[in-house]
Amino acid sequence: MPHIAIRDVTKTYPGRRRRDAAVTAVDSVSLDVERGDVFGVIGYSGAGKSTLVRLVNGLEPVSSGSIEIDGVEVTTLAPAALREVRQGIGMIFQRFNLLRSRTVRANVAYPLEVVGTPRAERRARVDELLRFVGLADKADAYPEQLSGGQQQRVGIARALAASPSILLADEATSALDPETTDEVLDLLARVNRELGVTIVVITHEMDVIARIATKVAVMEQGRVVESGATYDVFTNP
Ligand code: ADP
Ligand code: ADP
């Protein structure tokens, strides 16, 4: 059974004004992401990548089609059940989305606070995560005292706090310079290899796909126009 099975999913937004045409952001997309994959989704801006991620994460309802995670149909779940599924999905973002007023430690602890993890357990888990991402010495720093690459490592630690089986990375290296991008991609590769987390990497950068993704889907205007092993998709015969 695929870890994430996307079946004929379409997402249409109504026009922003009444006379505007509707926008089909995701158009009849089907994809299988297997457990343990690092799966890349590449396409230009506006191709529908972020929308697809929001649908998988249950942040928005699909217009039609089905999405199964671990064999569970998630498009029709009641809010409480959906929240539970979303606990199993971590997200990282282009702009890191850290809370400025909170320390590194408190940012990473945040998702655990939300689910009511006891303080002692939270501490131990946060310490372990900060060691894993190489930022144990920055626990008491504030996000703005860190470099972009360090902030994204905090983002990764936070995304992993609730021990998700899936990590969705939406343009996670697009705000970083090439060297820092490499560091963050190396960390994501370790998350996949050492923790067994399935990773979906959304990007407009071919280099990112080439560095980390074993499989790739190419999106254009809401559709998947090509997909398969990265080597096959990007190697011209
Ligand atoms: P990408 O992540 O590949 O840049 P998006 O998923 O952000 O693409 O956008 C796909 C299309 O859907 C674009 O035409 C965009 O303008 C449109 N779109 C995205 N979100 C909304 C929204 N909330 N309301 C209306 N249109 C949207
Ligand atoms: P304060 O708000 O007291 O200045 P922080 O901003 O560091 O301290 O902490 C904010 C939140 O992070 C608190 O809710 C606290 O429970 C939690 N927290 C503090 N230290 C740790 C830790 N070592 N591990 C996990 N959570 C922590």
TrEMBL record:
Record's keyword annotation contains Cell membrane: yes
Metal-binding listed as a keyword: no
Entry keyword set: Amino-acid transport, ATP-binding, Cell membrane, Membrane, Nucleotide-binding, Translocase, Transport
Annotated GO MF terms: ATP binding
Positions of the ABC transporter domain: 4-237
Protein name as annotated: Methionine ABC transporter ATP-binding protein
Species the sequence originates in: Agrococcus versicolor
Included stretch of the parent chain: 1 to 237 of 343
